[in-house]
Every structure is written in structure tokens, then in C-alpha cells.
């Protein structure tokens, strides 16, 4: 079975999709020696990798041309002769090139919207997205053999747009071997809160800054917040100005993005991870933090209700008031409770979000489409 994936970029600045897609492909290659995988993407300054170590995965970079299309992509996709195409994310034109090629060749294809059909996301650059939906994007989605959502909440958003395709609900996964559980004895003295993600208005960083500003100094005096990531320089400058104006420069620090071992150590060093986002289809950073044993506060703009089920964090309404109240509760917890919550979080990821388990589900989906095997239980037809 040959599966061809297309994504607009795997640059390290691209956030979760770059990591989740490349990790998924590596794990898929371990499931079946008969599975051949190709990944096509744009050349960029800092790709998350230059080649896969697995011999059954081919990675091809392309030069971008007008409007972000990839030069010679459609020709190479035709030469590939896959059994199935899988496009990662929407709006960008490489996945549209893939969908057109798939229809011309009469080859089935999957599209993973990656949260880009969530209501909040559709309101951003609304006119541009409405035009894209009208001219190509809705057709590409409507004619897909299957759509892939990373959570039931995202599947509901897809259905709300009138799309009637089968929807496979498969979460993103975490390569557990890369995210070691922290040594709780070593990090008991930590009073650090971590935000690690793309620095973007969608992520709700202003909400965290304002909530922190409203907390009594007696509560926050021993704590600090690291905001780690990349983003628009003007937006980052505005955040720094806001932090300075509120007199928080000693406790809130914006730092450059971290990768690899440095990033994992940032998760492990933190007592608490906070993602105050307006909207996420999954939020891979939440899973990574939990895998390292760090409890999480995130919002109901994400699908992380499991934080409450497993007692490893807080799943709260979007906004300053809810965030402030939760921080007031969290900052006074005893060390023993932090440790138990951290262990609970690791258990959650082992139970439901290991990369191997996710890859097994994706392979089952491919078999259903290509080899006409029984429909998996995670595929919604309603």
C-alpha cells in the first residue's frame, strides 16, 4: 500500500502540524513493512527534518511559486501512483493541488483540516476564507473520500458546515520515548508556569497576562511565567509593552522558541503548563506537557475534557475571570498534589494518545479505504 501525504510546510516555525505529521509517518512505517509513504512539502528555512531515518518514507521538497503552489507537485504526484492521498491542513494551495490530482487520477483522498474549520478560526481573515471556500476549498472537502478530525468537537464543527463525508476521529499522538516523565524530587521547588506554543492572538496570551496582573502579589511573588515560541515580531513587541506597562517584567518573560531536548526540559522544569487559547482542534503541546508529568490549564476551546476525568489539570471557560480563579486554586496546591496530578497526566497520554496507538488507528483507516475492510468504529457516518 502506498500513501502520499501533502502538507504546505514542515518548517519548525509551523507549530504542531509539522511535528504531529512527521511523527505519525515515522510510527506508521513501523506498523507494516509493506506500507510505502511519501511526504511532499515546500522548501523552507528550518524544516523540522531533512529526511526520514526510515527507508520506507520518501521526503520531497518543492520550490513555491505563485500563491504558494508548489512547482511540479502535480506532475510528481501523478508519477507516485499511490493508493491513497492524504492532505494535511487546508487553505494553502498544495493540498488543493493534491485534491485536483486525486480526482483526475480517480484515487481516493483524505483531508485533515487541523482545526481550520473551527468557528473561531473561520472568523479570522473571514473574507479571504469565504472566497477560498467558494472557489475551491469546499469542493475539495466535499469530494474527499474521508475527512479526519482530531477530536469529536472538531468533527461536530465539520458537520455544522454541511459536509456529509465519513469523518475519522483520531487524535494526534505523542512519541512517549521522546518525552520522559520528570523526576518529581528534582523539580519540587519549581515555581514556574509555562506557555510554549506559537505566539499568536489565537492563543489567548493577553488573557494570561491580564489574569496574572489581577492576582494578589502575595500569591504570585515566588512564581514566574515563561512564554516560549515564535510569532509576528510586532505582535510580540506589543505583548512585551503590555507586560512592561502592567509592571510584570520581573515575573513574565518572553523567550525564543525551543526545540528538541531544550523544549522537553522546559516542560519538565515547569510546575504548570497553561494554554489559554480561544480555539484548538487538538493542542499537541497539552499532550506533550502531560507526557512530561506537568499538569495543565487549558480552555474549553480545546477538546481536553480528559484533564478533569484523569484529574491532571483544569478545563476552563475562555476568559480572564476563569483563568484567574483557576490560577488562584492551582498556585496554593501542595507538592504531593502536583506530583499526583503529573503522574495522572502521564497515565492519560499512555492510555489514549501514544503515537503507536494513533498510528494503528490511522493504518486501520487506510485499510478501510484502500482494501475495503470493515469500517472502523472511530469513523462517523452521521
TrEMBL record:
The keyword Transferase applies. Keywords: Transferase. Residues 15-177 form the Glycosyltransferase subfamily 4-like N-terminal domain. Residues 181-347 form the Glycosyl transferase family domain. One of its GO terms (molecular function) is glycosyltransferase activity. InterPro entries: Glyco_trans_1, Glyco_trans_4-like_N. This is Glycosyltransferase involved in cell wall bisynthesis. It comes from Maribacter orientalis. The lineage of its organism: Bacteria, Pseudomonadati, Bacteroidota, Flavobacteriia, Flavobacteriales.
Amino acid at each position: 500500500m502506498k500513501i502520499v501525504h501533502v502538507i504546505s510546510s514542515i518548517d519548525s516555525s509551523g507549530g504542531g502540524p509539522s511535528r504531529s505529521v512527521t511523527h505519525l509517518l515515522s510510527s506508521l512505517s513501523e506498523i507494516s513493512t509493506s506500507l510505502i509513504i511519501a511526504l511532499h512539502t515546500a522548501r523552507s528555512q528550518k524544516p523540522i527534518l531533512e529526511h526520514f531515518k526510515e527507508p520506507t518514507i520518501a521526503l520531497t521538497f518543492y520550490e513555491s511559486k505563485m500563491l504558494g503552489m508548489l512547482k511540479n507537485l502535480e506532475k510528481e504526484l501523478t508519477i507516485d501512483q499511490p493508493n491513497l492521498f492524504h492532505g494535511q491542513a487546508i487553505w494553502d494551495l498544495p493540498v488543493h493541488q493534491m485534491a485536483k490530482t486525486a480526482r483526475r487520477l480517480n484515487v481516493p483522498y483524505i483531508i485533515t483540516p487541523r482545526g481550520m474549520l473551527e468557528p473561531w478560526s473561520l472568523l479570522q481573515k473571514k473574507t479571504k476564507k469565504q472566497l477560498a471556500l467558494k472557489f475551491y476549498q469546499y469542493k475539495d472537502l466535499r469530494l474527499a473520500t474521508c475527512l479526519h478530525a482530531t477530536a469529536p468537537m472538531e468533527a461536530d464543527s465539520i458537520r455544522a458546515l454541511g459536509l456529509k463525508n465519513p469523518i475519522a476521529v483520531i487524535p494526534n499522538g505523542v512519541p512517549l520515548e521522546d518525552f520522559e516523565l520528570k523526576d518529581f524530587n528534582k523539580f519540587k521547588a519549581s515555581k514556574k508556569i509555562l506557555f510554549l506554543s506559537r505566539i499568536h492572538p489565537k492563543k489567548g496570551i493577553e488573557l494570561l497576562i491580564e489574569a496574572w496582573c489581577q492576582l494578589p502579589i502575595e500569591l504570585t511573588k515566588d512564581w514566574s511565567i515563561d512564554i516560549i515560541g515564535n510569532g509576528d515580531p510586532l505582535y510580540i513587541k506589543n505583548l512585551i509593552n503590555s507586560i512592561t506597562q502592567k509592571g510584570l517584567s520581573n515575573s513574565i518573560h518572553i523567550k525564543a522558541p525551543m526545540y528538541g531536548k531544550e523544549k522537553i526540559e522546559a516542560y519538565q522544569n515547569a510546575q504548570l503548563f497553561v494554554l489559554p487559547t480561544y480555539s484548538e482542534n487538538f493542542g499537541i503541546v497539552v499532550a506533550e506537557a502531560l507526557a512530561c508529568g506537568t499538569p495543565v490549564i487549558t480552555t474549553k476551546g480545546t477538546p481536553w475534557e480528559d484533564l478533569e476525568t484523569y484529574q491532571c489539570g483544569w478545563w476552563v471557560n475562555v476568559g480572564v475571570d476563569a483563568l484567574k480563579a483557576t490560577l488562584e486554586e492551582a498556585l496554593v496546591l501542595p507538592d504531593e498534589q502536583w506530583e499526583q496530578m503529573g503522574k495522572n497526566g502521564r497515565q492519560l497520554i499512555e492510555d489514549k494518545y501514544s503515537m503507536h496507538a494513533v498510528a494503528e488507528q490511522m493504518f486501520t483507516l487506510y485499510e478501510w479505504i484502500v482494501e475495503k475492510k470493515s469500517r472502523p468504529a472511530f469513523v462517523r457516518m452521521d
